[in-house]
Amino acid sequence: MSAFSRLRLDGVSRRFGGQAALTDLDLTIEAGEFIALLGPSGCGKSTALNCLAGLLPLTAGSIWQDERRIDTLPPERRGFGMVFQSYALFPHLTVRANIAFGLRMRRLPKEETRRRTEEAVRLVRLEDHVDKLPGQLSGGQQQRVAIARAVVFEPSLVLMDEPLSNLDAKLRLEMRTEIRRLHQSLGLTTIYVTHDQEEALSLADRLVVLREGRVQQVGSPRELHTRPANWHVADFMGYRNLWPGRVEQVDGLRATVGSSGHRLVGEAVGDLRAGVDAVVAVRPEDVRVDGSGEALDALPATIEVVEYQGRELAAEARTDTGLLLHLRTEQRIAPGDQVKLAVDPLRLLVYPADAAQPTD
Ligand code: ATP
After folding, report:
1. What is the pTM of this model?
2. Strand 262-268 relative to strand 19-30, pairing
3. b/e map of 63-79 (b: 16 or more CB within 10 Å)?
4. Of all atoms in ligand 1, which is nearest to the CA of residue 49?
5. Model ipTM value
6. % of the chain residues with pLDDT over 90
7. Which CATH superfamily is domain 6-226 in?
8. What fold, for 241-352?
9. What confidence tens digit (pLDDT) does each residue in 38-76 have?
10. Which residues have CB under 6 Å of ligand 1?
11. Which of 330, 260, 244 is nearest to 301 (CA)?
């Protein structure tokens, strides 16, 4: 398949009966990029990937490889590599034959098929397993075969749908590094679907966050981590503290919010004015314990629950007025401790509220 310099999705939409699964997806991907499609279950990630692969027809919109329209082509004529959660290997074929399958289908000369297959086997480090059947391999090894099979014919685009979710935690981390390494050495344009924000942040050059079939934000890992576009994205990116409140004052980028009897000062993100409902978002690691003296508005609270998480503790604390805070700290704290908590105003984001409500 010929290479391209740009892939463009223009208003891509898909409905199932009366229900919209994906609405008006606009996205331009440069050759060589690693893009993660991220969002909660049912947000339309797999639908988007299947539309790209040609496994699902669009109900509206178009997909372009440079000037060539491709959404009307059948999957095999798009020439994309695909990796699924379920591996989808041929159980009766050896590792070598599974990997060579796509090349045989394309009727490449024998010698080239052999050379490329060996190369792909080396790439995913399966040299010692080429004559085994998939049933004789571990989950991680099977997924390596699936990846080799998807990249062996040097596709212009590789699509991966939750490829690591069947693996245990340790293997998942190893395979994550492996996928990153592969992407760096081959420079393949990759679109990767996951609901795991950490996985997406660590792998992708850019992330696309979906919610209810619509794009919420497209950005670099840093942008998504530090400045989510709305409180739903914040929620998804690990801002465990989401407090409803009312805006008291806005002064440039600084917003003051009343929430559960506390006055909180933070950065206004989006359209805010005095009197409107707001959602305050803070990451647990940005709540400081014992802010006495340093912060104007230190919050007196009682520690309720503490969980060990390696070097850090994850804890929940509640203020006298009932505000629940999730926090992470290296300080030694225990349930029942009275503490003062503070949040740096630069790490406290204030968003306009909408119809949906945050939950603890
Ligand atoms: P998950 O992470 O759970 O796989 P997802 O983000 O990939 O979720 P999709 O599988 O794309 O979500 O589904 C988006 C919406 O479309 C969901 O509401 C789902 O129920 C619906 N949907 C998906 N496929 C079909 C189908 N074949 N028929 C009817 N509805 C479907």
Report:
1. 0.89
2. unpaired
3. bbbeeeebbeeeeeebb
4. 11
5. 0.94
6. 68
7. P-loop containing nucleotide triphosphate hydrolases (3.40.50.300)
8. OB fold (Dihydrolipoamide Acetyltransferase, E2P) (2.40.50)
9. 999 999 999 999 999 999 999 999 999 999 999 999 998
10. 16, 21, 39, 41-47, 195
11. 260
